[in-house]
Amino acid sequence: MKRVFGVKKNKDPPPSIDDASDRINKRGDTVDEKIKKLDAELSRYKEQIKKTRPGPAQEAIKARAMRVLKQKRMYEGQRDMLYNQTFNLDQVQFAAEGIKDAQQTMSALKSANKELKGMMKTVKIQDIDNLQDEMMDLMDVSNEIQETLGRSYSVPDDIDEDELMGELDALEADMGNETEADGVPSYLQPDKEPDLEAELSLPSAPTGQTAVPPGRSNTQTEDELGLPAVPRASIRG
Prior knowledge:
Number of helices: 6
Distance between the termini: 174 Å
Oligomer: single chain
Helix content: 55-70%
Strand content: under 5%
Order of helices and strands: HHHHHH
Shape: elongated
């Protein structure tokens, strides 16, 4: 059967945009090399035309230069067509890459959408509202507990605030009187230190000779301070 119908040949895959673009760029490089060679040849013919005199020789050189110039124009036209083809391929490649990016973006969005739907199933708005309400109730209870614990036990509830304000005004008036009289309230004045010199003042020592009663001789000795010396007690054996 294979001999009769033959074997089906495997087809080569179609060239990609990159392959086609590379091939066209190589052809363009080849055309550019040919144009450079023609430019060099034209430059040589120009020098020869300048050096030769008008006549048949110069005309022959001009004819050759015209032929080379025509070839250059032809190659330049081919190069422009290759550049246009390359530009078109670049545009197609850019559009294809944009489509691929769009496909990847859509795939990522679909995956994210599916994931978000699964996450939203576990989160409900009603549960969040209930949680917020419970938190507010707990905060209110906490504030009440703090106020209760901070209540003073020694202050009775039946205190007349007007009476307290009257006592406070009277206290301020007394403080004002003390300030006007002494300049500083008495309870802010420092304690006075006792005068030690006045308490420890002693009478001055007598100076000169003391009066001696008649019939007694002033034979009593004095100590170094001018005071009568104390007589020593006699020691009996």
